[in-house]
Design a protein that fits this description.
Helix content: 10-25%
Radius of gyration: 36 Å
Shape: rod-shaped
Strand content: 15-25%
Structural class: alpha+beta
CATH class of the largest domain: Mainly Beta
Distance between the termini: 119 Å
CATH topology of the largest domain: Immunoglobulin-like
Number of domains: 2
Number of strands: 9
Largest sheet: 6 strands, mixed
Strand order of the largest sheet: 1-9-8-3-4-5
Order of helices and strands: HEEEEEEEEEHH
CATH superfamily of the largest domain: Immunoglobulins
Number of helices: 3
């Protein structure tokens, strides 16, 4: 077989593949949101199982769908009752729906599929990932600043205390001045100082 035939065969096989492997997709979310981690079309080519896994979790998976139902047997506890497939039964979309996102959900997720009639019961699909999605969970802005900045000079509420500072300071100066004047008047006056013009 020539090099030309090998290259042609490769491109024909790739173009016939219902799932194209693409680069990593990035998704950003805030805690509390419901989000979808996208994964391309599976076509209708005998997909019998879908597994979503986070790359930094050991043996537990995020979601395993097989035998036309979710399999919670080895699902990581933090994802129980918070994940589902975008479409069930599997038709054309393998996207993962993640509800009530938490800061701990951040990381890289991989989707793997199993085709055919292989009924081997295992919790880990050994096929190559069909898609990879990185989830970045951004913390919401701190409360009190309307624009999300941490610069207090932009927050009108941070200047409320200035309205009280001026009257309090003015009152303190007046009282202090009156007390000083009263103190000076109570001092004994020396006649020699008065004659020399010091007082």
């Amino acid at each position: 077989m020539t090099v030309f035939h090998l290259i042609l065969t490769y491109f024909l096989l790739e173009s016939a593949s219902p799932l194209k492997r693409t680069g990593q997709t990035n998704v950003t979310a805030e805690p509390g949101q419901n989000i979808t981690l996208p994964c391309g079309s599976a076509g209708d080519r005998g997909v019998i199982a879908v597994e979503w896994r986070r790359t930094d979790l050991d043996s537990d998976y995020v979601l395993l769908y097989r035998d036309q139902q979710l399999d919670p047997e080895h699902q990581h506890p933090s994802y129980q009752n918070r994940v589902d497939l975008q479409n069930r039964p599997i038709k054309d979309d393998l996207s993962l729906v993640l509800e009530n996102v938490t800061a701990d959900d951040g990381g890289s997720y991989e989707c793997r599929i199993q085709r055919g009639t292989d009924r081997e019961k295992r919790s880990v699909l050994r096929s190559a990932p069909v898609c990879t999605v990185h989830l970045d969970v951004a913390l919401p802005p701190p409360p009190g600043n309307m624009d999300g900045s941490t610069d207090e000079s932009k927050d009108p509420q941070s200047h409320q205390h200035l309205g009280l500072v001026f009257p309090v300071l003015t009152t303190a100066l007046i009282i202090g001045g009156l007390m000083w004047k009263s103190h000076v008047k109570s001092l004994p006056v020396n006649e020699a100082d008065v004659e020399e013009g010091r007082l």
